[in-house]
Design a protein that fits this description.
The protein is an alpha+beta fold. It has 2 domains: 13-339, ABC transporter involved in vitamin B12 uptake, BtuC (Orthogonal Bundle), CATH 1.10.3470; 375-719, TolB, C-terminal domain (Neuraminidase). Helices cover 41% and strands 20% of the residues. The protein contains 19 helices and 26 strands. The longest helix has 33 residues, at 311-343. The protein is elongated, with a radius of gyration of 33 Å.
């Protein structure tokens, strides 16, 4: 079928580059480049710079400033700015010295008092900016002016007394000069604070809210985020971080001056922006902040050692910031264009036979009108556009993309929608309907387990179990990451179909690990083995990858005997078998090749065969396009999706397979003005009826099967009746 099959699994440099560039840490490429260049220049021009004693001294000197930079970064991530960090630092430094030398307070108590004072001073900014919604730039500039003025006034009164005091405390000395294994104590505390800050930003509800507020306050407000509280807390945290740095500074230098903290707000802003924190908010991390701080530390220290001070140092720092920000902005602006250029890499697919277009030939695949008289389940009147649909007061119950169907032992029909609903139909003509549950994601595959729980594949959320009382439980949303894979494939994204073995093991498919659910057309254009089949063990609660590297496994069906399953490889138009137990365990083989269409879900039939839904049909033109990967690549880049050359999604087709997997019958709906069903994704037999689902439809269908066993159901054959 495929003379390019070996090429399917070849490593692709373009895919590797695209996946590397799409990683979030690539956003810091420019800051890392600046850091490496600056460090290399410094080491080359200053002898002995990397000696342990020199590094320890340099780190200790800049450890206090690191907390100020971290304070600035936290506020920037939330979409604000705190120009008063230098003034807060100077105030808390003076407070610590006053408490130690004038009042003789215990050193640990001083730390506590200073932290509370920093929180209070930060709360002043937070109240003005967060609660009263004042402009952060002007507000913090005003508190900066007031803060430095207060420091000068207090120094006139207490400066001499602080300088002449002789109070000594070993704890105080350790805070200023202590080290652990040669590493300065303040640097260890800063590292621990960065780790805690990373967890706060990336793993806590407050951190997610802070990032969302910085990314867009209007969207965050619509999402119910308490913006004023989030902003208020960010300034409180900023004040406390400045207080920590000030205590270390006071314990190390034991002196206060009118120039303490002056200009640190600009230096801190330069550091965090240089590290890759966005000035507009919503983007940044403590790791980026630390990177920027270390870079500024090296630059400043180097300039001092080579004799560049005062205006020259400020000029160089400003020039470095300007160049780095300009390069960073250009990089962030164009990196996604590069990713888009490389990410989708189609491969050649050559079918061994041509699709048959002569409908006069007597073949199994000869078109017919078997689906034209399909019973429509889920239609109730016409909407205002004149299309058959639900009546206006029931539009929230509208079926949107009902991909799969499941039937319980009471002949109630269940189907899911792309809006997250699972609908249930009952009654003699299935006119009674209700919302069984709301999953919150796009509902795909459905199947009942032995206990009567409805197991559901929900795209973007995971594998879920819905009890008979409609209570929901998430079974799995991730699996161990593939070793050596650049792109993180641990999260379950494009879940599709599932089936349950007799021992309760749940096998389910993921169409692609490279694309999200709304990008499935790109996966069809690429036609690479991006999919996989996973298994969930209810006994252990663990999920693992059973079969990797499959070209879009759209459907799966456990075979009778319980040792193997059939799975569709949609973009290859074929169905394969995999043995998960028995003497052939681990073996896979092709069952039927060169189907006339693209197979999706597979379900058992009452005579021992299988029903295969065809989501689209092959055409001669689409077959030619599948042989030309460069053409498909140019098509996706130059044309809107509506103009893409795709298979025929307008026809409906279901293929019946025999026990040995050979096509024996087809049910067609060729389309036209009387079309009943197209783009079929599932066909489920139950009690002499065939229930049909499809992603481009707004209803499910039911077809009578005159020759079928009227008492047969799939779950009674599997489970012997539901418990």
């Amino acid at each position: 079928m495929l003379d390019a099959m070996n090429g399917q699994s070849k490593w692709s440099l373009r895919i590797f580059v695209a996946e590397v560039l799409s990683k979030r840490w690539m956003e810091t490429l420019i800051p890392w480049v600046v850091f490496v260049v600056v460090a290399a220049i410094t080491v080359s021009i200053i002898p002995g710079y990397l000696e342990p004693d020199n590094l320890a001294t340099t780190l200790r000197q800049f450890g206090e400033f690191a907390f100020v930079g971290l304070a600035m970064g936290i506020v920037l991530i939330g979409g604000g700015v705190d120009l008063s960090v230098g003034a807060l630092f100077a105030l808390i430094n003076l407070l610590a010295l006053y408490l130690f030398y004038i009042t003789g307070l215990n050193s640990l108590a001083i730390v506590g008092v200073c932290l509370v004072a920093g929180a209070v001073l930060g709360a002043v900014n937070g109240f003005l900016v967060g609660i009263l919604r004042a402009r952060s730039f002007l507000t913090t500039m005003a508190t900066l002016i007031i803060g430095f003025a207060t420091v000068r006034l207090l120094l006139e009164k207490y400066g001499v007394a602080i300088a002449s005091s002789g109070n000594v405390d070993p704890v105080w000395d350790y805070i200023g000069y202590g080290s652990v294994l040669g590493i300065p104590f303040n640097i260890l505390v800063f590292a621990g604070t960065c780790i805690a800050g990373h967890l706060l930003i990336t793993r806590s509800k407050y951190g997610w809210r802070l990032t969302s507020v910085g990314a867009g306050r209007r969207a965050a407000r619509h999402a119910g985020v308490p913006i004023r509280t989030v902003v208020f807390v960010s300034y409180v945290v900023s004040g406390m971080l400045c207080a920590v740095g000030a205590v270390f500074y006071a314990a190390r230098l034991n002196s206060a001056g009118s120039d303490t903290g002056v200009g640190w707000e600009i230096l801190a802003l330069t550091a965090v922006v240089l590290g890759g924190v966005s000035l507009s908010g919503g983007k940044g991390s403590t790791g980026r902040i630390a990177l920027g701080i270390v870079t500024i530390m090296i630059v400043t220290n180097t300039l001092v050692r080579v004799g560049v001070t005062g205006g020259g140092s400020s000029f160089f720092l400003g020039l470095l910031l300007l160049l780095a920000v300009a390069a960073d902005v250009k990089w962030l602006k164009h990196v996604w264009k590069v990713v888009d250029l490389f990410y989708t890499v189609p491969t050649a697919v050559r079918f061994s036979n041509e699709v048959e277009t002569d409908f006069r030939k007597e073949t199994v695949f000869r078109p017919n009108n078997a689906l034209m008289g399909i019973m429509k389940v889920g239609f109730h009147g016409r909407d205002f556009t004149g299309q058959e649909d639900f009546i206006m007061d029931d539009r929230q119950l509208r079926l949107v993309a009902p991909e799969d169907v499941a039937i319980d032992d009471q002949q109630r029909v269940y189907t899911g929608t792309s809006t997250g609903l699972i609908m249930r139909y009952s009654g003699p003509a299935l006119h009674d309907r209700e919302v069984f549950c709301r999953t919150g994601g796009q509902v795909r595959g459905l199947a009942f387990d032995k206990g009567g729980n409805l197991i559901v594949c929900v795209a973007g959320i995971g594998l879920m179990s819905v009890a008979p009382d409609a209570s929901m439980k998430r079974l799995a949303d991730e699996t161990p990451r593939t070793v050596g894979r650049v792109k993180d494939d641990s999260r379950l994204l494009m879940l599709d179909d599932l089936d349950i073995a007799e021992d309760g093991m749940i096998y389910f498919t993921e169409g692609s690990t490279r694309y999200n659910m709304d990008e499935w057309l790109l996966d069809s254009i690429e036609a690479r083995p991006n999919g996989r089949i996973l298994s969930y063990d209810p006994k252990t609660g663990k999920t693992r990858t059973t079969l990797n590297g499959i070209v879009h496994p759209g459907g799966i069906c456990i075979e009778r005997g319980g040792q193997s399953f059939l799975y569709s490889e949609t973009w290859l138009c074929r169905i394969s078998r995999y043995y998960f137990a028995g003497p052939k365990a681990g073996r896979k083989e092709v069952v039927v090749d060169d189907l006339p269409g693209y197979p999706d879900n597979i379900n058992p039939s009452s005579d021992g065969g299988f029903w295969v839904a065809m989501v689209a049909m092959r055409t001669k033109v689409s077959d030619i396009a599948m042989r030309m990967p460069s053409f498909r690549k140019r098509m996706t880049r130059r044309l809107p999706v509506d103009n893409w050359l795709l298979p025929n999604f307008n026809a409906g087709c279901i293929v019946k397979l025999s026990k040995d997997g050979q096509p024996v019958e087809t049910l067609w709906d060729l389309g036209g003005t009387k079309q009943a069903y197209s783009t079929i994704t599932s066909a489920v037999e139950d009690r002499g009826h065939l229930y049909v689902g499809g992603i481009f439809n707004v209803r499910i269908g039911r077809v009578d099967l005159p020759s079928a066993n009227k008492s047969w159901t799939a779950h009674s054959e599997r489970w012997g009746g539901m418990e």
